[in-house]
Amino acid sequence: MTTKPQGLGSLATIVESARQTWNLSRRDRLWWFVAAILVLVPALAFVLAGRAEDGLGGRGLFCLMAWWLHGTVIVPWLTLYLGVQAVHGRIEDRTFQYLFLRPVRKVALLAGNWIAVASMAGGTGVLGMGLLFGAVALRGDLWPDGIEWGLAGAFAVVAGAAAAAYAAVAVLFGAFFRRPLVWAAFFVVGVQMLAANLPVSAGLRRLTITDPLRRLLLDGIEPDRRLAQMLWPAERDFRPELIEHPLRDLLLLGGLCLVAAGMAYARTEYDSRERE
Amino acid sequence: MTSTAASSGLPDWILDCERISKWYGPISALTDVTLRVGREVVGLVGRSGAGKSTLMKLAVGLLRPSQGSIRVAGHPAGSRGARACSGLCPDTERLYDALSGVDFVAWMLRYHGLGHRECRERSAATLTELGLGEHMHRPIREYSKGMRQRVRLAQALAHRPRFALLDEPMTGLDPLARRELGERIRRLPEQGVGVLVSSHVLQELQGLVDRVVMLHQGRVLAEGTVAEIREQMPAAPHRVRIGAADPRRLAAELVHWPSVQGVRFGDSSVLELSVTGEPDFYIALTELGTRWPGGLREITPLDDDLASVFGYLLG
Question: Which of residues 232-271 of A touch B (CB under 8 A)?
Fold first, then answer.
């Protein structure tokens, strides 16, 4: 009697890990709360559309709400929560033991977590922004030049990029820190808000997700000066050349986070980690 | 016992721990432990904090030793090869509560490289064998403590490991289930599986294990069969209960024997003796029984069990 299979290959492990993370995360009661928000935000937009100040229009209303509600609150926090739960939750409740005993690469397990979290949060972000766009689009009077469907596409790209980048940060914090949600709060509220008030040329901005995301968004929607300032209050003199290479910056930050997370996850003796 | 394995080309020992130590900063969890397990059931005995769980987690690679080496079926502990042929029933209470028992075990099997269909079939078969067939499609959160324990066992055994580490496997099981599980564990060596099983309930291990390893404060206190360990403690007198007609006269005779250190009266027809030089004592006692009026009704060693031996060792 011997064990013939020597374990699942890395690619299949990533798929299986992602599938099971999906399977477990979709049962979280948090989704009821998320569903309520996804419905409430478009409802709020529909109500506000009737009172929108002159000149804001459907374009401005959608961009403001999509960025400041979905782009900076819902997508980041949902992604960070799911990512931390998928990695740190299993370490804290010690169910990681069942996984780490299997003849598969830990890094592949982690990559599966990242893919699942990024796809769930990204999908939710795209759905939320789509519903919001739909609600604003219903007010035809706010679109004198016709409905700009391209805006929805630009925000969908931003939602996907945001989810992928925040998921990378979440798995790093989950693998590395004992209190990952506290660190996540520090990152979002502390580092990113601090960086947002620095000059546009500050290098620290490249260590955030908000800043390249905002540049990606501005590149996609080509805002007028007023809208640009509403979306990027720290920059009083928006110029297209400030956009530079937002996707490259996001890829670099996300990649660094994933590599560091993989190294921590593969090497750390989590069993000796104390419960919090 | 295990040397026969060499002829089959397999390593002599399924688990081979060579002088391992584990430190957490200044705290020593295990010190210079050498342990080998072949195709047999070895009991790991010790009080809470003795290092049992640490030793098991080192053996499956969840922890790395600070010193020494561990090999499982010839593979370094923690390597993919070692993980492929190990199964651990951990001491954690937690499981993936949202999943059903059959889904959870099938998921774990999938990582061993089995196809989806085979995972489901083997998961169902293992859970059925462990008495969970009727309930395997229910969510684990609805399971009793005993049912959850069976799921933990199933995930440890379903992939047919060559080496099974069972940390307190009887926890939460009813007496009938304990007996059934004990019988299943006893059969594992026949299938080529080495088993390391821990329990703080020593009576559970009695009759289940081929030999025991006693841990105390991270060190191996004793190792061998219970009888072998007991024989190594000549200073600790054996306690023997003898039932016979006229126990007072019997006590008066026995008290003069050099091997008898003390005599205590139990109920009306029973004596309890403290004895050294055990083999000679039993030879003389057998001879006495043949001429004693009515014979000796009972001769029962009282402290040759695991619990007594462990108690003696720890003083």
Answer: 269, 271
